[in-house]
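Lay summary. Proteins are chains of building blocks that fold into shapes, and those shapes determine what they do. In this project we predict the shape from the chain. Here is one chain we studied, written as its sequence of building blocks.
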Amino acid sequence: MTATTAVKKKQQADSGPVLDWSAGHGPVTGALSATTGAFAVATTGAALSMPPAWAMAVGAAGALGHTVAGLRVRNAGRTLAFKAASWLVAAGWTTWAITTGPLSWAALGSLATIGVGMGAGARSVALYEEAREEEAIAAEQRAIARELSAERRAIAAEWVERIQRICSISVKVLAVEKWETGTGYSLDLEPQGGITYERIAQYSVQLSADAKLPHGCTATATPGIHQGRAILDVTTVNVLQEERDYPEDYSPLSLHTGIPWGYRTNAEQIRVYLREQCALVVGPTGSGKTNMVHMILAGFARAEDMLTWVIDLNAGSAGLPWVLPALKGELQREDGKPVRPGIDWLASSYEEAMLMLDAALAIGLHRKKAYQDLLAKANTDLLPISAKIPQIMLVIDEGAEILVSTDRQMKQLAKKILEVIRMLRAMGIRTVLTALGATGSVLGNLMIRREAKVRVALTGGETEGMDLGKMFPGRRGLRVDQAPYKGSGFMGTPESPAGLFKGWRIKPKQIREITAATSDRHPRLDDISAKAAGPAYARRWDAERTAWMHDLTNTEPDNGAGVPPPAAPRQGLKLSALTDHEAAARSQNEETLRRFRAEIDAEFATAPDPHNPDAPAAPGLNLSALRGEREQGPAWLSKVLEAIKATGAEGMKPSAVAELVGKDRKTVRAALQTAVERGQLIYRDNGPHSVYVHPDHA
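And here is the predicted shape, written in a compact code that computers can read:
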């Protein structure tokens, strides 16, 4: 209880009950007010010898005024009569009391009787008026329902005839529901004779044309409540034609409640659920694919249980708008702390992408072992994702092209990407791949078709490389010319079949706003995952790793000897003021970046390099054990090497090594293969009799 509340209660206790003088009169208080007022007027009038006719004149005026007011609000006749009679009776008693005296028992008794009658009558007319008002509302609703019902019956009859004529199918319309957005309606159909919705879906184009729907509007059949029902969605307003900005609602989102990726033709948002699903976004040049990527990153930035890693080998252009403003210190938080980038890691080169993918694989495999107790406690085989254990979303721009590339480096990246897709679903690491077209080479990979259940095809009217049949198998009636607008296309998710949609327009200014608004919302990578990721993740924002983001100078061709030509002396104006301004800006950017790295180091500090004993020790996670394990192998490997050396030229099978160290064969085989690459062992491939031999006995 606050002090203010205590004072108010004490004042109320001292002064008695609090009366609300602004409240209206009820049956009791109204009758009491009328009788006490009449008694006061009669007493005063008798004492001052007031003419009795004045009281009757006032009562008549009051009766007339209430009658006029009641007519204006359309009160019932009995209500008007009661109010007028109340005024006249009160005026008559007052006139009589002034004449004969108000203090007699007869005067007081008659006044009390009048008061009781007024209260009972007021209650009666109030109940009558309430019932009358409710009946009027109900009658109005019935009239509206009759009007809507007539309109719906007309719509139902029209579509029954149309489907019978075009599809040769008899259907029964069970309901017609108009969309709240006013852009169309849905019909609940029951096809006769065991026909399913797919038969109606085949004639989507013909039905739309026969209904004379506007361009961009369709009549699309989808599954109903059971196999014997179908839903026909009819769009009457082309919402894909207009451009809509990304909503300014930057409220928190969650992986479990879905991330908005655009809106359907009925103007309703589409939410995608990526806890177990990967996503594939295809779109030719000029279709709005880059804008779609930014819209996806905006949704991920708003989520409280997701971290976004971006791979874009095209100079990192997909992620730079989410990173540079924060690193340059162009954004400010209210508490004065540096604004964190809108994404958690950005890779623009092959080397950085390999570091990122290796870190993702290390995190996923380490989570499988480290979180066994948590999985058992939650009684699930899916890692419980939350702000404490966030999901990692890998957004790979033109990643589908990487998977089908014949370049040697791209093949290495493709191998890592497929490993992430194949192995790390349960541990909360999923991917969003983009591609330039829905072609057989892109969709030919079984892993993509099986795991990327969320699929987006941005058409923009482009027909080349847009095989919607391969993109959305089993979905008929989809044509590119239905979505000729930039940013529009088709989207299908496990929750909803493929259909028309459009994405919001998001511009650089709004990207900055979202980055600043969601800076304190991004989760931190859990300690177990950060330990597995190692220095590659902890040092991702180091100056040497982010120098390419700030390097805006043009590279001059060399002179043939591999050395750039010396810079010619500048002539003309010396803009020293601008030079000083640029130097100051660079200094400010470096200071902001230093503060940001200091904050990252405070959260994810790493141990000093074990190969540099003079380096000062830093508090935080000691990742030297993992570094040593990667360079020299696990601790039990030395024991295995000695055992293999003792067997001589005969060598040891992987199964025997697994029994020796008590590890599973997969772990043992990976460690032995790494030892082979380091030259510590030699592998003799002899089918089921393959063995590992020490180099001394090879």
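What the prediction tells us: Residues 105-167 form the longest helix (63 residues).
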